[in-house]
Amino acid sequence: MKFDxxxxxxxxxxxxxxxxxxxxxxTAIFEMGRxxxxxxxxSDLSESYCTKCNPCNITSGVGGAGGLSDGxxxxxxxxxPSSFSVGGDFDFLDPNYLIEKMNEVDEIFLKHGxxxxxxxxxxxxxxxxxxxxxxxxxxxxxxxxxxVGSDELPKVVKxxxxxxxxxxxxxxxxxxxxxxxxxxxxxxxxxxxxxxxxYLIIAVGRxxxxxxxxxxxxxxxxxxxxxxxxxxxxxxxxxxxIMDDITSAxxxxxxxxxxxxxxxxxxxxxxxxxxxxxxxxxxxxCLVNGHSKAKEKSSNTNFALLGHYEFxxxxxxxxxxxxxxxxxxxxxGGGNPIVQRLKDLRLGRRSTESRIKNNRLVQPTLKxxxxxxxxxxxxxxxxxxILDALERLDxxxxxxxxxxxxxxxxxxxxxxxxLKVDEWMKTNIPxxxxxxxxAGVSRGIVGAAVTGLIAAEGILRERGME
Length: 466
Ligand SMILES: Cc1cc2nc3c(=O)[nH]c(=O)nc-3n(C[C@H](O)[C@H](O)[C@H](O)COP(=O)(O)OP(=O)(O)OC[C@H]3O[C@@H](n4cnc5c(N)ncnc54)[C@H](O)[C@@H]3O)c2cc1C
Prior knowledge:
The protein is 28% helix and 24% strand. By secondary structure, the protein is α+β, with helices and mostly antiparallel strands.
């Protein structure tokens, strides 16, 4: 069987590319995971992720890694140029074109059920916060954001999927692409089936990044950058009341600090107002993450506080370093994440069940986290950075560095290989485009979706249809 366009991966990148191609070119999506209606995590999100599903329903399936996620949609803020760096490396795009594409993504999300409420437009509040942040030596990056919520996002994904199918896009689930033959212009699945294409879009996300890395090596796909960096830190949990002021104006505030002692770059990421800390299991280690819902609310707010560490010669395995840190932290937690009160970290002692129980202001939302000592797993430099950044953030969000604040580890973000693509997301191999997080060009739902629209436009142009 042959298609005009084959898209590998049904994450936001792949689905938005298909959205643009639907009704114009004969398009098929091959997705190794399940349909959104069948993506169920057997564990309660507030307690534990597991490894029972292969592929994992959290990171794979129609909707991609974002399908069951918090659904924070981050858009650049035209008033604030610093916001152009969030969600992907889009330096190669004209800023006006980027805004145009983000607006297009937003319109599609709204059409399919994303909420009307838009954060980031209360400029008076933002300017006030910006002033306070800068006075404390903190960079604040204002964005425009919507929050769909992990309870509502599957409905939005389903609505987009239905529209694609109605317009003739074939969506094949439980089909893993294991090889691409660019000479014959065919993809091969794990069952040995072959499908021909005129154009191919690789949109495999992080779950397909290691396969893509290997394929890129075998077929000389040009690489722009092989990252030597990793982000390591903690998830911070505080009473929601101390962050309500800022999170009511900006749902997921992006704050950046250069630490005093080590000159390291720390950032806040993935704030979940009135949400839950959750865990993700990766076999021999686990990581923490967060989510929040549109309807149900907890009384805590959590966010990631991450340090960016770049390695130099001779070491070039940052991801392995991160995995080792995660393994040792998980081991200390007896196979679970660790939770520690900030007071205990400051005093150089472990948290215990009774110390956590006494922590009257804030109780952990992740019940399977084990009270422990993060400083027995993390390097001193990372601990210095965490303490320093929290003190600085406290000047902008008073109370965030209170003794009662809870810290969870391991919180690690890995970087993928960055492929070399042109302004239409086209690789050096004819008729092959690469988009989204797997290609290393985006870092989020909206960024991945934007690259999908661009690749589709590139193909339509190549066909003389735009
Ligand atoms: C728990 C969690 C919460 C998140 N929360 C947010 C958030 O609130 N806001 C935000 O902006 N971002 C969030 N993200 C990140 C966001 O989901 C990703 O940045 C985004 O989904 C990337 O889109 P993508 O299309 O590039 O790849 P993905 O969404 O990863 O999709 C790739 C798809 O390709 C499939 N695939 C991989 N290899 C193959 C293969 N060989 N054959 C066939 N199919 C294949 C995968 O199964 C997957 O479904 C979150 C991620 C996680 C894991």
